[in-house]
Amino acid sequence: xxxxxxxxxxxIRIVDVLAHPLSQTLPKPTVTSWxxxxxxxxxxxxxxxxxxxxxxxxxxxxxxxxxxxxLIETSLKPRLVGQDARNIGGLWQSMRRSxxxxxxxxxxxxxxxxxxALWDILGKATGQPxxxxxxxxxxxxxxxxAAAVNWVDDAEADRELERYxxxxxxxxxxxxxxxxxxxxxxxxxxRKRAGDDIDLCVDANWAYxxxxxxxxxxxxxxxxxxxxxxxxxxxxxxxxxxxxxxCDVPLAAGxxxxxxxxxxxxxxxxxxxxxxxxxxxxxxxxxxxxxxDYAGVHGVSYAPHIGMSGILCETASVHLAAAxxxxxxxxxxxxxxxxxxxxxxxxxxxxxxxxxxxDVPTGPGLGIEIDWDAVRRLRIQ
Length: 381
Ligand SMILES: [Mg+2]
Hints:
- InterPro entries: DgoD-like, Enolase-like_C_sf, Enolase-like_N, Enolase_C-like, Mandel_Rmase/mucon_lact_enz_CS, Mandelate_racemase_C, Mandelate_racemase_N_dom.
- This is Mandelate racemase/muconate lactonizing enzyme family protein.
- The protein is of the alpha/beta class.
- The chain folds into 2 domains: 122 residues, Enolase-like, N-terminal domain (Enolase-like, domain 1, 2-Layer Sandwich), CATH 3.30.390; 236 residues, TIM Barrel, CATH 3.20.20.
- 40% of the residues lie in helices and 22% in strands.
- The protein contains 14 helices and 14 strands.
- α4 packs across α11 and α6 runs parallel beside α7.
- The longest helix has 22 residues.
- Magnesium ion (MG) binds next to loops.
């Protein structure tokens, strides 16, 4: 032991890793080009240490959450127990080696939950919020946009738009799908209803062929939308490059990427203007920071994806947003689902969305307190 600096020399040994599969019914279904989501699952990762510190993280596990539990308990836990929780980079590499092929898929999502929990432990051990550990930029609030106006009929879309404007959001995302003629009509209609002072963007969730995306993209550019998100399937990188040349709207994507190398091509040639990794998918805080930094080097903005995830994903994203210089704007799910409303208490004084901003928690680690009764209640039996 180093008597002068015990905090640095003392290891904080991991004694247990628990994975809690949770499920919630959304207060209002999310309607996208993929279909209707009314039930969503995640896995909450709990890491216990010999110092009594407990770290928590979240794995994006929309489907088959029990499979993630198996992966965490059988492949990752044996590589973690007995190790120093502060050796986050080394543990990440060790976990990654439990897959001999290219990095991606459920393993990286499982690692994401562990990685967030390790950063939470590091923050609690040092008494620092994660944003400060990441370098910090002095932001204490971050800009968010309302997500989202669903792909529903015109009257309901109008109501959702007006509700978000009424809640003070200056930036609003609209879900878009087929047919293209309806999409182009909706783009113009919502612009007229919102007026020119509200910023609008669109998420298509891979709805289009290249030719369809060109048509929709031109309508978006003509109506001053600030981005066109995932118009094409993520594998169609050549399609994204072609689309960028054929319409003027900025392209956004990245929630479907697992690691930095998957974002490399479209960031390096600046096809994308905005990169949107999801911290609960893209290997946690460690890999998401790497991905956002890579984007920053190429003049591409970072805009965290949250989707229907829980409060741990949202809070980890807030810390990244507060710390990374190329942060642009973060997604904010407007309906407070049980994963956001019940799972944790925000730190005292931390205000939820106000005029399109969120507070950055100032407590150690993630800066939130998990409600373990809610975990038990939401747990899949
Ligand atoms: Mg999206």
